[in-house]
Here is the input.
Amino acid sequence: MDEPGDRELVERYVGGDRVAFAILVRRHERRVYNLAYRMLGREEDARDATQDAFLSALRKLPSFRGDAAFTTWMHRVTVNACYDILRKRKREPALEIPETIEHGVPHDHAEETTISLDVQRALLQVPLEFRAPIVLHDIHDLAYEEVGEILGIPIGTVKSRIHRGRLALAKALGERPGADRPSEERSIP
Here is the structure.
């Protein structure tokens, strides 16, 4: 028997099937955690944001209209949870290096491709309004339209913020925007 789709699980949960939400959490927790980790840069904050996102989703699920895919909606809920944590933080601390990934959160494609620690630290220096679109588009490989839907901004704004965010990221990495050679080709002294 095929696994039920997200929309069916939402309908089942709203109809009283509490197990349906547990299935949604298992299905999406890796993606939610990875998005939160990329936005926040600390495992503890990412775990908190993941928990907050699912608690918020649990409360709001009866009002989920299905205008967007559940995944898109869940990304938006997660970004909002990250914004809440960032607002609570007085400053952004240095990125913590994960000891292991034994915290019950399995790897996904974004983890397997391994963003270097320098890039992750530099990403945390990118202003949040630019960081969110970069994480959603460049790391989670979402289309401009979906990023716009998640962030509630027009596609033109998404493209502009991604461009400006990439420039800020290059600056944080010490690259000159428009430099002749890509960073992979630079020799390390």
